[in-house]
DNA sequence: CTCGATACTTTCCAACATGGAAAGTGACGG
DNA sequence: CCGTCACTTTCCATGTTGGAAAGTATCGAG
């Protein structure tokens, strides 16, 4: 309603996506497979969450052929970084940071 | 499984409940009505979330008749405080605290 | 050109979580 | 008895999830 509504972002708040954002926030980009291992979910589940982040304009999905193998690398967009940071700030406010 | 599984608590993570815990964490107790106003939800919704926190053993619900009116005050139990703090610590880890 | 492997994507589906509205409950005060 | 206050519970329609399985695209091998 108040400030909560402006910064609190459900797309970012869901556990798997919060983890993805947290991982991508501290690196330039990360492979799909690496993120999957870190988050500990299946291919299909990560794929669906990444899709949601992508549709929200928060994550950039780049497919590059490296060593004749398609590798998908993920990275936060500027909007994604802003949304993540705003959400984290809101979490800190709520949890008494 | 990993540290995430041990500290991350879905009961605490849901937005309305995270707010309730955050509010109760900094006071000894708070009236149902005050919490409802702060969280910005309806009676029924708060009641249902409080019930979940109560069933998890995180919140204590005390009904006292004050000025011939029943007043319900909520407070975190020791377990609730521990769960909240562990969850917050986990959030900080995930979000790069 | 067909086959199998790699690396995701999408679909299918059953389970669960939510919120709003409305009905229900218990304790007064009139 | 009745109405009010302060929640509780029920009803219901919707939205989100994850796992399993099928689907797609791109090689390299045969």
The CATH topology of chain A: Arc Repressor Mutant, subunit A
Named CATH architecture of chain A = Orthogonal Bundle
Question: CATH-wise, what's the superfamily of chain A?
Answer: Winged helix-like DNA-binding domain superfamily/Winged helix DNA-binding domain
Overall geometry of chain A: elongated
SS-based class of chain A: alpha+beta
Task: Tell me the number of helical segments of chain A per DSSP (H or I, 4 or more residues long).
Answer: 6
Q: Could you estimate the helical fraction of the residues of chain A in percent? A: 55-70%
Overall number of structural domains of chain A: 1
Describe the oligomeric state of these chains in a short phrase: homodimer
Fraction of residues in β-strands of chain A: 15-25%
Task: Give the total of beta strands of chain A.
Answer: 3
Order of helices and strands of chain A: HHHEHHEEH
Biggest pleated-sheet summary of chain A: 3 strands, antiparallel
CA radius of gyration of chain A is 14 Å
CATH structural class of chain A: Mainly Alpha
- Biggest interface between protein chains, with counts per chain? A-B, 20 and 20 residues
Structure report:
Two copies of one chain form a homodimer. With 97 residues, chain A is α+β, with helices and mostly antiparallel strands. Chain A has one domain (10-95): Winged helix-like DNA-binding domain superfamily/Winged helix DNA-binding domain (Arc Repressor Mutant, subunit A). Helices cover 60% and strands 19% of the residues of chain A. Chain A contains six helices and three strands, in the order αααβααββα. In chain A, strands 1-3-2 form a three-stranded antiparallel β-sheet. In chain A, strand 2 (59-66) and strand 3 form a beta hairpin. The relative contact order of chain A is 0.20. Mean pLDDT of chain A is 92; it is low at 1-5. The A-B interface holds A 1-2, 4, 8, 10, 13, 15, 18-19, 21-22, 25-26, 40, 84, 88, 91, 94-96 and B 1-2, 4, 8, 10, 13, 15, 18-19, 21-22, 25-26, 40, 84, 88, 91, 94-96. The first copy, chain A, binds a DNA duplex (30 and 30 nucleotides) through residues 14, 16, 32-33, 41-48, 51, 63, 65, 68-72.
């Amino acid at each position: 309603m108040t400030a909560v509504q402006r910064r609190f972002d459900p797309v970012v708040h869901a556990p798997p996506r919060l983890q993805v954002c947290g991982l991508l926030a501290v690196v330039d980009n990360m492979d799909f497979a690496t993120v999957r291992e870190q988050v500990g979910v299946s291919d299909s589940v990560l794929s669906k969450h990444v899709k949601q982040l992508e549709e929200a304009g928060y994550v950039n999905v780049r497919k590059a052929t490296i060593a004749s193998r398609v590798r998908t690398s993920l990275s936060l967009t500027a909007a994604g970084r802003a949304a993540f940071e705003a959400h984290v700030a809101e979490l800190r406010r709520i949890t008494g940071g």
